[in-house]
Amino acid sequence: MKLLGQPNSINVRKVLWTCAELGLAPEIETWGGDRGSTHDQEFLTINPKGLVPVLLDGDLTLSESNTICRYLATRENRAGLLPADPEKRALVESWMDWQAAELNGAWKAAFMGLVRKDPNFSDSEIQLASVRTWNAQMALLEEHLASHDPYICGANLTLADIVLALSTNRWEMTPMEKPILPNIANWMERLSKRPGFRAHCRNGVP
């Protein structure tokens, strides 16, 4: 098994944390940044989307980080991380989909402008609008945790916790005004007891 990407990439890190929970240690082949452009033809032949991570497992080539996490949990028959029961599984996947579609979309201008210093996102009004939307999405997560702790889907850690914790770490580390959200803070503290969290979530890289 081989994982293509940069170990400091947020989407690669969620796969690495999932692997840690599963006891898997895929070979890491670094792509992106100064270690080989994902727009090189060699990489595009593997993944025409030009994005990391990519999982190579035998004859399977798989992209999209949340999909890779679901595949690995199913491959290892770990129903704790991704339940076999259709209703319980759907709840986990709904939060994973929300993370990818809504939460990730909220932070783009704020993160790219304030952290990456991308000139395409230098407009302060656009950054402020992104901060407001991002904080509103995090407040939604805070309200959910008020009645569903200790984890996103109840009593057990699932893939929903892994992907949302990576997003929360990015929110925590972005230099912007943000509300105090105690339920999220307590949830992150509980997660910090896990080796995979310490290695791949709060590892000092935004």
Distinctive features:
Thioredoxin-like_sf; Glutathione S-transferase Yfyf (Class Pi), Chain A, domain 2; transferase activity; four-stranded mixed sheet; 56% helix; 206 residues; 4 strands
How is this fold's topology laid out?
Blueprint: E1 2-4, H1 10-22, E2 27-29, H2 41-46, E3 54-57, E4 60-63, H3 65-75, H4 86-114, H5 124-148, H6 159-173, H7 182-191, H8 195-200
Parallel strand pairs: 1-2
Antiparallel strand pairs: 1-3, 3-4
Helix pairs in contact: 1-3, 1-6, 4-5, 4-6, 5-7
Describe the protein.
- By secondary structure, the protein is of the alpha+beta class.
- The chain is globular and about 45 Å long.
- The chain contains eight helices and four strands; from the N terminus they run βαβαββαααααα.
- Strand 1 (2-4), helix 1 (10-22) and strand 2 (27-29) form a beta-alpha-beta unit.
- The protein has two domains: 2-75, Glutaredoxin (3-Layer(aba) Sandwich), CATH 3.40.30; 86-195, Glutathione S-transferase Yfyf (Class Pi), Chain A, domain 2.
Brief digest:
By secondary structure, the protein is of the alpha+beta class. It is 56% helix and 7% strand.
User: Which strand order spans the largest sheet, edge to edge or round the barrel?
Assistant: 2-1-3-4
The percentage helix is 55-70%
Looking at the structure, the CATH topology of the largest domain is Glutathione S-transferase Yfyf (Class Pi), Chain A, domain 2
Beta-strand fraction estimate? 5-15%
Report, as a whole number of angstroms, the end-to-end distance: 26 Å
CATH C-level class of the largest domain is Mainly Alpha
Main sheet makeup:
4 strands, mixed
Mean pLDDT: 95
Protein structure class: alpha+beta
Order of helices and strands: EHEHEEHHHHHH
Shape by Cα distribution: globular
- Compute the number of strand runs: 4
What is the count of distinct domains?
Answer: 2
- Discrete helix count: 8
Instruction: Provide the low-confidence segments as ranges.
Output: none
CATH architecture of the largest domain: Up-down Bundle
Over all CA atoms, what is the radius of gyration? 17 Å
